[in-house]
UniProtKB/TrEMBL annotation, chain A:
It comes from Meinhardsimonia xiamenensis. InterPro entries: ABC_urea-bd_UrtA (IPR017777), Peripla_BP_I (IPR028082), TAT_signal (IPR006311), TAT_signal_bac_arc (IPR019546). NCBIfam families: urea_ABC_UrtA. PANTHER family: ALIPHATIC AMIDASE EXPRESSION-REGULATING PROTEIN, PTHR47628. Coiled coil: none annotated. Transmembrane segments: none annotated. This is Urea transport system substrate-binding protein. It comes from the Bacteria.
Automatic annotation (TrEMBL), chain B:
This is Urea transport system permease protein. It comes from the Bacteria. Keywords: Amino-acid transport, Cell membrane, Membrane, Transmembrane, Transmembrane helix, Transport. It comes from Meinhardsimonia xiamenensis. GO terms for cellular component: plasma membrane. InterPro entries: ABC_transp_permease, ABC_UrtB_bac, BCAA_transport_permease, PBS_lyase_HEAT. Belongs to the binding-protein-dependent transport system permease family. LivHM subfamily. GO terms for biological process: amino acid transport. One of its GO terms (molecular function) is transmembrane transporter activity. Pfam families: BPD_transp_2. The chain crosses the membrane at residues 253-280, 312-332, 344-362, 395-412, 479-503, 509-528.
Length: 431, 545
């Protein structure tokens, strides 16, 4: 009997003995892990998969002896794509269920809605989705990409010879905080690279926009100025399908005007006939098609867990995989699930990602990731056509926005600040 | 470490030679094609980066080898693979019996291959563009007219002066007028990229000016600052722009009609349930969604059982969607709505509950993800009318919407059921006195409205996502149309839908989609203040109440 299983049996035995007694915070009962993803409503399309992947990871950890000799117990709640309900459910997880950490949220609105709860009750949130940056909180760990880990390298690729030496840019997005901020950063970046203002077209559409005729024909007209044109798309969720359909119907192929998307992954393409989309691009930190032993293993486990060989894996799933393993390692390092101890212990923790490298938690609570650009294939998968030579460190505050360029985040003592202003020499942002 | 040590130990001339050979393709590009044979070049395709591959592709095209078009075509389609065992370049063909490989050079059949024993030679967008242009140049003399036309178009897109010779040869042999025009246009683009005499360039500008579309504009624009022909180019661009502006108006009208047809399809069922019966049915959008899912289910069944029927899938799905959505509609009316007549607030809440139940039920059965509904071949692609792009799917949806509208008018005006329905909605007690089963007519009327929502779902599945959220995006628009058009009158829904569609599409280019939508809403609010009963006056039960 090795030490792990001994501990586990011991823990199980003491758990049985202690069962009638009151559960103490650091008792021998299971460690609870909150899963805060919408299982109904508009966001269920993206978030249900993340709930499943968390259950898979927790199950596997338990099979390998649990954590600190205790069993992990997932607590799944359904915030139903309703932003205020996210905050309520987060409070319920922390106060009633006494979870040690929460993995959840998709949209930035939902993250902003739960933030005060995590600060007030001092718990941990692992946020797995690419987002607009401009934030670093003590209680949140951002395992998805910041703009410099997705948008900027993608634009660099399109500007390169292999990417087609693009000179004219359409920044198309859904009208909310992520596309607005990302496009602000991109616009500043493009201008810093010498792109003239008249070579940038910015367009916003409402959520769920389905009639793309006018916009696609505008893009077509914009692209006929004799310079290579590309579309950088931060169009969200469901609106992508009719957008790509309209592009195909109006005869715009990826060779004429490539579209690089930051919100379209394997899961989104599953609802689409991809043959007219071949060659359009997406930038992520992970693709299902990446050929590494870690990824093959992950996909095999996912298929076994979900019982369906046709299910795809995607970038936010990898982010949860990384985030969960980082948390496990930090808890083992700290020897406790106490949030304060874990927050201190997790910085510098390094775990393997699925693309053949190791991701590290940085002091600004963002992680290091490779950036991959993939082209859509006929089978709905992506072929990686370009990747950054090394890992990119997530940047909480963009260097291309004048107000945030002077801010840094470092949660190690003695600074312990998410928005330290290097010009004024104090914590507290621009004020 | 070993390599670093080994290099200086090599005999010097050999190292130099290796370096020279390695640099050969880069140094001597123009002659590399002839120097390296076709076979050797093909063998070199799998190696190196995309840029290396680009050079090899150019060299292959330049060999003029008769097999080049086929090999490059296979590369473009992703069927050119390299066998992992011996590095042989093969063309993969998928047959019913499995995957088989052929030697790319000799065409020799190499038998079946296992999935992982070969690797695809990858191309990216830049290479795809190059390949298309190279294949185009190689197939300009093809016996097939369509192939020649496509070839001329890809050569046009590349604008590569290297193709002028091939174009001249093709032009002198061409007998078809349309292909000849395309070839002349392709030649004009290429001429502009050379140092040809000014006269020849002027002629080229004139040819492109006559073509006058976005592609011609893109080809001309870079030459606007050319000192020799700058004036002609600027004038041609201005002319093209002027013509395009005019077409732009027509294009906007078309977009407006198309959006209007979608709005009308979504709203017309509601015009019956809300407009005629006065029931606020918040589950209307979900009935549309059920129609879309019926289409999905029909297509799945066809894919599995009878793939040749695929082009007919929408026609098969349409009556089924009416039955499914209509049946659910009748169930809603009999089960819930009939107990709540005259209590609009309770109806609203109850039907909203039904909409959530239907959404979650579909989510549980079909999953939360989008489902793929394919376009039949006759609904894919687009039609060019002058400078206007009319997509087939939108055109068919417009025709379909008009047919549904006409059929509905006929049912209401000419059929016995329509007569009974009008009688019940205009004067219920009198209709009951005359022996009409008003309960049955209520159920059937509601079912009719729901069935038409299902039909709308079949059409909308072609242009929108088929997901459990499909209905939500249409419910607000539908109510907007019915309220604006005037409840109780089908012509109101007709005028409301097309009016709003066109207004929306004319606002969109200037204000953007977001502000455009807000302005339309503000306009409707103001309009309703002035004419609370909408464009067309109200009739039916709501008046009595």
């Amino acid at each position: 009997m090795d030490r792990r299983s001994f501990l586990k049996t011991g823990a199980a035995a003491s758990a049985m003995l202690a069962a009638p007694a009151l559960v103490r915070a650091q008792g021998a009962g299971p460690i609870k892990v909150g899963v805060l993803h919408s299982l109904s409503g508009t966001m269920a399309i993206s978030e249900t998969t993340l709930k499943d992947v968390m259950l898979m990871l927790i199950e596997e950890q338990n099979r390998n002896g649990g954590l600190l000799g205790r069993e992990l117990q997932p607590v799944v709640v359904d915030p139903a794509s309703d932003w205020p309900l996210f905050a309520e459910k987060a409070r319920e997880l922390i106060e009633k269920d006494q979870v040690a950490a929460v993995f959840g949220c998709w949209t930035s609105v939902s993250r902003k809605s739960v933030l005060p709860v995590f600060k007030e009750l001092n718990n941990l949130l692992f946020y797995p989705v690419q987002y607009e940056g401009e934030e670093s909180e003590r209680n949140v760990f951002y395992t998805g990409a910041a703009p410099n880990q997705q948008a900027i390298p993608a634009v660099d690729y399109l500007m390169s010879e292999d990417g087609g030496s693009v000179e004219r840019w359409v920044l198309a997005g859904t009208d909310y905080v992520y596309p607005r901020t990302t496009n602000k950063i991109l616009e500043a970046y493009l201008k810093s690279k010498g792109v003239a203002a008249e070579d940038i077209m910015i367009n916003y559409t409402p959520f769920g926009h389905s009639d793309w005729q006018t916009i696609v024909s505008d893009i077509k007209a914009f692209g006929s100025a004799g310079k290579k044109t590309a579309v950088v798309s931060t169009i969200n969720g469901d609106a992508n399908v009719p957008f790509y359909k309209e592009l195909a119907n109006q005869g715009i192929s990826a060779e004429d005007i490539p579209v690089v998307a930051f919100s379209v992954g394997e899961e989104e393409l599953a609802g689409l006939d991809t043959s007219p989309l071949v060659g359009h691009l997406a930038a992520w930190n992970y693709f299902m098609s990446v050929d590494t032993p870690e990824n093959a293993d992950f996909i095999a486990k996912w298929h076994a867990f979900i019982g369906d060989e046709s299910r795809v894996t995607n970038d936010p799933m990898e982010a949860h995989y990384i985030g969960f393993n980082m948390w496990v390692k930090a808890v083992e390092k700290a020897g406790t699930t106490d949030p304060d101890a874990v927050i201190d212990a997790i910085i510098g923790v390094s775990v393997p990602n699925l693309t053949g490298g190791c991701s590290t938690m940085m002091p600004n609570h963002h992680i290091t990731k490779p950036v991959l650009v993939g082209e859509i294939q006929e089978d709905g998968q992506f072929d990686v056509v370009w990747e950054t030579p090394g890992l990119v460190v997530g940047d909480a505050w963009s260097d291309y926005l004048p107000d945030s360029a002077k801010l840094i985040a470092d949660w190690r003592a003695p600074m312990s600040c998410g928005n330290f202003n290097v010009e004024l020499g104090r914590c507290g942002g621009g004020a | 470490m070993k390599i670093v040590l080994a290099l200086p130990l090599r005999p010097f001339p050999a190292a130099l030679l290796t370096a020279l050979v390695l640099m050969l393709p880069a140094l001597m590009l123009p002659s590399a094609g002839r120097a390296a044979g076709f076979e050797e070049l093909v063998a070199r395709l799998p190696e190196g980066s995309y840029s290396d591959r680009a050079e090899v592709i150019e060299a292959i095209a330049r060999t003029g080898d008769p097999r080049a078009a086929e090999v490059l075509g296979a590369l473009l389609e992703g069927s050119l693979h390299v066998r992992k065992a011996d590095g042989r370049v093969v063309i993969i063909e998928k047959t019913d019996a499995g995957t088989v490989a052929f030697d790319a050079l000799t065409g020799e059949a190499l038998g079946a291959v296992a999935g992982r024993s070969t690797e695809k030679i990858k191309v990216n967008n830049r290479l795809r563009g190059m390949l298309r242009s190279a294949i185009g140049a190689l197939s300009l003399m093809s016996p097939d007219r369509e192939t020649r036309l496509m070839a001329a178009q890809s050569v046009f897109a590349s604008g590569d002066p290297a193709n002028i010779e091939a174009l001249d040869a093709a032009l002198s042999a061409e007998s078809d007028r349309e292909v000849a025009t395309a070839l002349a246009e392709a030649r004009a683009v290429a001429i502009l990229n050379t140092d040809a005499p000014v006269e020849e360039k002027r002629a080229a500008v004139a040819i492109l000016r006559a073509r006058g579309d976005a592609a011609a504009q893109a080809a001309l624009a870079p030459h606007a600052s050319d000192p020799a022909i700058g004036n002609e180019v600027t004038a041609a661009l201005a002319e093209i722009e002027r013509v395009r502006q005019m077409w732009g108006v027509a294009q906007n009208v078309w977009y407006g009609l198309s959006l209007g047809s979608v709005l009308m399809l979504a709203a017309i069922g509601l015009a019956i349930t809300f407009g005629v019966m006065g029931v606020i049915n918040m589950a209307h959008g979900e009935l549309v969604m059920l129609g879309a899912y019926t289409t999905f289910a029909v297509q799945e069944a066809i894919r599995g059982a009878a793939p040749w029927l695929f082009d007919w899938s929408l026609l098969i799905a349409a009556p089924l969607a009416v039955l499914v959505a209509g049946g659910v509609g009748i169930a809603i009316e009999r089960g819930i709505v009939r107990h709540l007549y005259g209590r609009p607030l309770e109806t609203l809440l109850a039907t909203w509950g039904v909409s959530l139940i239907l959404q979650q039920a579909v989510r549980t059965i079909f999953g939360p993800n989008n489902r793929e509904v394919g376009n039949p071949s006759w609904m894919s692609g687009s039609l060019e009318i002058g400078q206007m792009t009319v997509t087939w799917s939108r055109l068919w949806i417009l025709i379909f919407a008009l047919c549904v509208f006409a059929a509905l008018l006929l049912v209401l005006r000419r059929s016995f059921f329509g007569l009974q329905m009008r009688a019940v909605t205009q004067n219920r007690p009198m209709a009951a006195e005359m022996g009409i089963d008003t309960g049955r007519i209520d159920a059937l009327t509601f079912g009719l409205g729901a069935g038409i929502a299902g039909l709308a779902g079949v059409a909308l599945s072609q242009i929108d996502n088929v997901s459990p959220n499909l209905g939500q995006s249409y419910i607000v628009d539908s109510f907007m149309v019915v309220v604006f058009g005037g409840a109780g009158n089908l012509w109101g829904a007709f005028a409301g839908a097309f009016g709003l569609g066109i207004v929306n599409k004319f606002l969109e280019p200037w204000t953007g989609a977001v502000l455009g939508k807000i302005l339309v809403l503000v306009f409707i609010i103001l309009f309703i203040q002035k004419r609370p009963r909408g464009l067309f006056a109200l009739r039916g039960r709501a008046v009595e109440a």
